[in-house]
Fold this sequence. Notes:
Blueprint: H1 17-27, E1 34-38, H2 44-51, E2 55-59, H3 63-72, E3 78-81, E4 94-100, H4 109-119, E5 120-131, H5 139-144, H6 152-161, E6 164-172, H7 176-186, H8 192-195, H9 198-212, E7 222-229
Parallel strand pairs: 1-2, 1-4, 2-3, 4-5
Antiparallel strand pairs: 5-7, 6-7
Amino acid sequence: MGPESQDYLDVLGTEDFWHANKDRLLAGFARGDRALDVGCGLGGLSRLLARRGMRVTALEPYPPYLERARQAVRGLTVEFSPQDAWDFSSPPLFDTVYLSGVLEHVERDAELLARARGWLRPGGRLVVLVSAHPFLYSAFDRRVGHVRRYGRAGLRRALESAGFKDVRLRSWNTLGSPALLWTRLTGRLVSRRLLARPWLDRALDLWFRAVEERLDLPWGADLVAAATPNEGGPSLS
Length: 237
């Protein structure tokens, strides 16, 4: 992904309401002591996992993000690589593999899932966060380089076809849905300056902590999936 495809929320850094709560949610799915963070972005998730004692390998091919991620984890043990998921090769070393905000950016999502399966130890866990609801696909998605958005059935089918089982799905980021629907209907993006206002950041952070962290709500702008590999399923490493 080039600069035009980078995260629309990068202006907010790693401590804003969305990144902080997303990272805390995903870290809760970690299994074992060794994690691979594919497309680590600004490094918030890698930093949180390292703080919790995990050995983390983080991939980030976009140089400005890689540099900011290195700064974010200063003093912690995180192994960085400038490779993307297609260049990275590894035997099954990892207990948890993260694809957070990655899968919707690639045309060959089935192939990427099969590669991720090959990086997992037996009994390991793949954790995926993707943009939800295909009907919400809009100018926002085109701007950030999304190829698609996922429905629950489509994401489950993609995971199972790639050799995963025990798929758990949950919706997340309920309040993001109205903003995305606005963009879908009007073609206008929600202002990043608005999202960066401290009072709004605090209010949204309170919502995530008080509601979305405690309840598995039936609707959200994002989908989170956790799954384990089938023994003998397809993999490409």
